[in-house]
Amino acid sequence: MTEHPSRGPADDIVQPFQIEGPGLRGRLVRLGPAIDTVVKRHDYPPPVAALLAEALALAAALAAALKYQGIFTLQIKGDGPVPLIVADVTSDGTLRGYAEHADTLPPQAEILAAPLPRLVGNGHLAFTVDQGAHTERYQGIVDLSGTSLVDCVHHYFRQSEQFVAAMRLAAGRNDAGRWRAGAMMLQRLPDHEPIITREERDEAWNRAVILMNSVTGEELLDRALAPSELLFRLFHEDGVRIFRPQDLSFGCRCSRERAARILGSLPRAEIETLFVDGRITVTCQFCNTAEAFDPAQIAALYDA
After folding, report:
1. What is the DSSP code (8-state) at residue 190?
2. What is the pTM of this model?
3. Nearest Cα to Cα of residue 40 among 49, 29, 27
4. DSSP string of 77-141?
5. Does residue 161 surpass a pLDDT of 70?
6. Within a 13 Å sphere around the CA of 5, how many CA atoms are in the beta-carbon half?
7. Any idea which architecture 13-250 has in CATH?
């Protein structure tokens, strides 16, 4: 049975789907205005912006495959000119991210040939699920491997005993100069259907991965190509069931109150060294929002 609901274009969603029969499910991520907002909060060089956009699409796809209440964080750390990328997604679908980068990057041709090693260098990729106080945090870490973020996450999948999956990622700017990102992930569920042999399940998995790998970056990013149309185009011969999508949106958890708590936790002597032109400014790494405090406001933090 193939379900083929809404045919209209959609942005900033995770579209769950399932391939009929062999125990395969997936997620298609489409990011438009949300990713453009995240990237344009900072003046990133295009290669850094593209890698951050891919990381956010990857984080959204992985988070959607988990059952959690809290924050899923993806962190890429290395010794290259982009030493840190952070992307996080809450269980209610708000996402944010930022990247640190040097003033000088390698030549464009070198970056295109091997973006991950040329930009991030040697390091690791970490996934963290934080469900709040009194819960145990889950974390998975893998060394950076391969030339791209997709190579690295596939390296993680190969090492995982519980999570068998494959991924496609894309990011870029459209003709209007707005950033877009997309991801497609296939996940193989545990073998629990005795009426299907292991060989049949293996064949179905390999076929689905080959079909998914045929999707182009342009198709992942094309807003005019509805998610249901793309999934039907890829998997209609096997039957694809499409479920209700989850909305995604940009959202930052910073606030003036949080900035005040951070400043109030510092020793008074240290605070005095932070004044510039008669005020202390706290800038959020994620959304680039700045909160300024004058001497009287700083004094009130300690007198309260």
Report:
1. P
2. 0.91
3. 49
4. EESSSS-EEEEEEETTSEEEEEEE--S----HHHHHH-HHHHHT-SEEEEEEEE--TTSPPEEEE
5. no
6. 9
7. 3-Layer(bab) Sandwich (3.55)
